[in-house]
Each structure stands twice: as C-alpha cells, then as structure tokens.
Automatic annotation (TrEMBL):
Record-linked PANTHER family: REGULATOR OF G PROTEIN SIGNALING, REGULATOR OF G-PROTEIN SIGNALING 18
Annotated protein name in UniProt: RGS18 protein
Domain (RGS): residue spans on this chain: 86-202
Species this protein is from: Promerops cafer
SUPFAM superfamilies, sorted: Regulator of G-protein signaling, RGS (SSF48097)
C-alpha cells in the first residue's frame, strides 16, 4: 500500500514548506472583504456632496447679510458706533479690524488690509536680519510686478520702495503703506459704513438710545401730585 503522505502531502504537518502557503491563503481571505468594502466612484461622489453641504464650507457666502457682522465680530452696538468716527479708530480696535477685513473679502480686495497689517508687523522687527527677511516677503507678496497679492501703488512709490530693498529700514514701506491706507480710507471705508451688516448694528443701537431718552424725561408737578395728592402749588 502506498504511503498516504505521498498521496496527500498536505497531511504532512511536519513539513515547514507548507506554512508559507497557509499564510498566503490566510492573507488572501482577509484581504477580499477589505477590497469589497472600498467605496466606488458613486459612493465617493455622495460623500463629497454631503461634505460640501456642511456650513463651514459656505462661511463666505453669508458675510454680506445683516446680523453676521455682529456675530462674527462679537461687539456691542455702542462699540460699533465708534467705528464710524474715523478710519483710524476702526483699525485700532481688533474687532473693528476683523470686521473690516471680512468686509474687504466680500469685495475681493483683502490684499490691501493684509498689506497694511504686514507693514505694522514689519515695523516691530527687532534686528536687521528680521527686517531683511520680512521685507523680502512683503515685497514679493504685495509689491513686485505680478505678485500674488499685488496692491495698487503708483510708479514712484513702487520705485522708491524697490530701491530700499537692498538695505531695508523700519521706514522702508511707509510710503506704500500710507498710499494703501488712503485708498482704503477714501474708497472701502465709506462703503463699509454703508454696508448692510454694519447698518444692522446701528439700527439695534438706535432703539436703545430712544428708550433711554424716554426714561430720563423731566418730572412735572402733576407727577408728584399723583404720589402726594395733598401737594399744593403756591
């Protein structure tokens, strides 16, 4: 009779050469369900569609609607009223600066305020090396021709700024910053004050003032007589 181990070699449990084959089969069995669970193109499209419906993907769509400025900036109406006193006062307060930046984004001109902020930070540099690095970044980002966020500067201002790039000083961008500041003050700032979000803040402040005036009216003699009927007017 022939050796059964020859006819059925898989019964030979002592043969180490069969172990790799078992491992391969075990690995294959585990991998099959994983492959089947991969989402198809249709499932991926559905997931992407659901993702795009989340509110955080559309924050910029509602910046121009009344009430969103108050929510985004977290300011009181009284504080917002001060923003209308001057452009400098608006930029001097963090909430005002944030609100104005959001407004410029709705007009696709946020590069102006970003340049102004970069210049303010640049003037705080504490070493020549720091000045050089920041000056190079500002120039390449906002001033040089075809810069990714190029601001609107006249030829003379741009030329003067370019010439000082070899040895930048704290005052290197003063002329350019002043030009952009005036542009925002004369053009964007008035539109900001007329924008729906800002006006909605003022409207919520006006009723509060009116009610305060009504409460602070002067008392008359008849008011006292209602309290003390025996009061006699001589």
């Amino acid at each position: 009779m022939e050796n059964p181990l020859i006819l059925f070699p898989h019964l030979n449990t002592s043969a180490s050469k069969d172990k790799p084959y078992y491992k391969v089969m075990k690995s294959t069995i585990k991998e099959e369900p994983h492959k089947a669970s991969k989402p198809g193109a249709k499932q991926k499209r559905n997931r992407l569609s659901l993702l795009l419906q989340k509110p955080e993907f559309h924050e910029g769509d509602h910046l121009g609607k009344p009430g969103n400025l108050k929510k985004a900036a977290s300011v009181s109406p009284e504080e917002a009223v001060k923003w209308g006193e001057s452009f400098d006062k608006l930029l001097s307060e963090k909430a005002g600066l944030d609100a104005f930046t959001k407004f410029l984004k709705t007009e696709f001109s946020e590069e102006n305020i970003e340049f102004w902020i970069a210049c303010e930070d640049y003037k705080k540099s504490k070493s020549a090396h720091e000045l050089l690095l920041k000056a190079k970044t500002i120039f390449e980002t906002f001033i040089q021709k075809d810069a990714p966020k190029e601001v609107n500067l006249d030829f003379h201002t741009k030329e003067v700024t370019s010439q000082s790039m070899g040895q930048p000083l704290h005052s290197t961008f003063d002329a350019a910053q002043s030009t952009v500041y005036r542009l925002m003050e004369q053009d964007s700032y008035p539109r900001f004050l007329r924008s729906a979000p800002y006006l909605s803040l003022l409207q919520s402040w006006a009723p509060a003032r009116a009610s305060l005036r009504r409460r602070s009216r002067s008392f008359t003699v008849s008011d006292f007589q209602e309290v003390r009927p025996d009061l006699t007017v001589w």
